[in-house]
Write a structure and sequence with these properties.
Number of strands: 11
Helix content: under 10%
CATH superfamily: Rieske [2Fe-2S] iron-sulphur domain
Largest sheet: 3 strands, antiparallel
Order of helices and strands: HEEEHEEEEEEEE
Number of helices: 2
CATH architecture: 3-layer Sandwich
Length: 171
């Protein structure tokens, strides 16, 4: 049977990947693979979005001025690091900018092991303790030097995202 989907070889080489988020509920995250890397798609709740105001002064690069492995798409250079028309949806590569481990989700706010007492929710890298807020921005004084990458992406509809391609073409 023939299909129009990219082959596994094409996906590994970097072909754009379509992400279906039709079943994604607020507070949930789905993981897709693009270029052999995990890409997280997180649908943030209003409380998660509000937490970004609280972490703004605690993150090392609040405006995403520094580049890790790929340039930051201009349309995501904002506090929530997502497209304005879908600002509750975070699309980020789940690879720590320190040594390439994959952080884990720690969405629950409040005191927890390995996290500060005023934790607002975000991601914790188990390898060396780097922490990231719910916009994937790294906190100050952590081993990770940069925020998590935001891949180029475009919405095909409200429930489908094409990761690896945007208005300017493929990454």
């Amino acid at each position: 049977m023939s299909t129009f989907q990219p082959s596994e070889r094409a996906k590994a080489a970097g072909a754009p990947v379509e992400a279906d988020i039709s079943d994604l509920k607020p507070g949930e995250m789905k993981i897709f693979e693009w270029r052999g890397k995990p890409v997280w798609v997180l649908k943030r709740t209003p409380e998660m979005m509000e937490s970004l105001n609280k972490t703004e002064g605690e993150v090392a690069d609040p405006h995403s001025d520094k580049t890790y492995q790929m340039p930051m798409p201009e349309y995501c250079k904002n506090q929530h690091r997502s497209r304005e028309e879908h600002k509750d949806i975070l699309v980020t590569v789940g690879i720590c900018s320190h040594l390439g481990c994959s952080p884990g989700k720690k969405f629950q706010a409040g005191p927890q092991p390995s996290l500060p007492d005023d934790w607002q929710g975000g991601f914790l890298c188990p390898c060396h303790g780097s922490t990231f807020d719910l916009a994937a921005r790294v906190f100050k004084n952590k081993p990770a030097p940069d925020n998590l990458d935001i891949p180029p992406h475009i919405y095909l509809s409200d429930t489908k995202i094409l990761i690896g391609k945007d208005e300017k073409g493929e990454a």
